[in-house]
Design goal:
The chain has about 350 residues and is mainly beta. The protein is built from seven helices and 21 strands. A hairpin with an 8-residue loop joins strand 16 and strand 17. The longest helix has 16 residues. Bound molecules: copper (II) ion.
């Protein structure tokens, strides 16, 4: 298929990147990681001490890529806030049923995915990942999707619903063109941790550009009280070679390395983990010095595993439950070491 829109958009993106403060020709293959880190360091520019963590961090430089940090005000979203930001929608009743209404707007937006590394993203509501949408099983979910982007998009939800609500271009209503909108409506089922993403072709590009988010369906009876966190794992192909140069949790490389996730000792911590990484077959989550219960897709109430590492293919997700018996700082990262070096690494700070 001679997809001229794709070529045009690629050219536009590259042109846009060249006009931005930083256009990084990062190479995934063939460039030693130190080279990548040097480029990250250069990209951070003067005022960012190479190899030094900001704020007098006592953890030391576990990786040489941490130079400066991304100011959440530049992006308009903050990975620290995304962690515990659950959007339960506008609630109303229709007959005996609870309805949750959401509005999602697709927009083109340049974001900073690592210190000094700009990326021409496509976003849901101006952030990557998009909002974490949350409902209870059996409720009616109504999402008004407005396409404010310059490209056609959809919202495809994982879950059980009619074909018309599946958000794929091949079935009606098909793509939502720029300036148009569509309202997706379906029952929230089954309970678990799911996701949504754009399903427009070329699919890998529409996902990799940033159009994805978590979708949580709570069981009717609820879950035990916990400190709940959402972590969406993804990456960015900053030089359009269909391989990632930057790996992230909740949109920004090293976000939880530079500012750890604060949790309380002995308290139940529940992590809704989603893998929507493109171009790499597998991603993983490894927690140091602790073990967690793992519920694949969150669709059963009994854990399948008691472990410290889970491997997730693209679109896979699950719930992790952990209580930290010791205070201190505990690392977590992709056990694919390359991903950890390139941004997918952080700490829990247990107090
Ligand atoms: Cu799209």
């Amino acid at each position: 298929m001679s997809s001229s829109p794709k070529k045009l958009s690629r050219r536009a993106l590259i042109g846009g990147a060249a006009g931005a403060t930083v256009a990084l020709p990062l190479l995934h293959e063939g460039v030693p990681h130190q080279g990548v880190h040097d480029q990250l360091a250069q990209a951070a520019g003067p005022g960012h001490g190479s190899g030094h963590l900001p704020g007098g961090s006592h953890r030391g430089s576990a990786h040489s890529g941490a130079v400066g940090r991304v100011d959440p005000r530049v992006n308009g979203f903050d990975p620290q806030e995304i962690l515990r930001d659950f959007d339960s929608g506008r609630v109303s009743r229709e007959g005996t049923r609870t309805v949750r209404e959401f509005e999602i707007v697709a927009e083109d937006k340049e974001i900073e995915v690592a210190p000094g590394v700009k990326y021409a993203a496509w976003t849901y509501n101006g952030r990557v990942p998009g909002p974490t949408l949350r409902a209870r099983e059996g409720e009616l979910v109504r999402i008004t999707f407005v396409n404010g982007s310059s490209h056609p998009h959809t919202m495809h939800f994982h879950g059980i619903h009619p074909a018309r609500m599946d958000g794929v271009p091949q079935t009606r209503p098909g793509n939502v063109e720029p300036g148009r909108s569509f309202t997706y409506e379906f029952e929230a089922e089954p309970f678990g941790v799911h996701l949504y993403h754009c399903h427009t072709s070329p699919l890998a590009d529409h996902i990799a550009k940033g159009l994805y988010g978590a979708f949580i369906v709570d069981p009717a009876q609820g879950r035990a009280d916990a400190d709940e966190l959402v972590m969406v794992m993804s990456g960015f192909d900053t030089n359009f070679d269909r391989a990632n140069e930057v790996y992230v949790v909740n949109g920004v490389a090293f976000a939880y390395h530079d500012e750890p996730v604060r949790v309380k000792r002995g308290e139940l911590v529940r992590i809704y983990l989603v893998n929507i990484l493109e171009f790499d077959l597998l991603n993983s989550f490894h927690l140091h010095a602790n073990f967690f219960d793992y519920y694949p897709t969150g669709t059963k109430l009994e854990p399948r595993d008691f472990t410290d590492t889970v491997i997730l293919g693209q679109g896979e997700r699950g719930i992790l439950e952990v209580r930290f018996p010791f205070a201190g700082e505990f690392m977590f990262h992709a056990h694919v070491s390359e991903f950890a070096d390139l941004g997918w690494m952080g700490f829990f700070e247990v107090t």
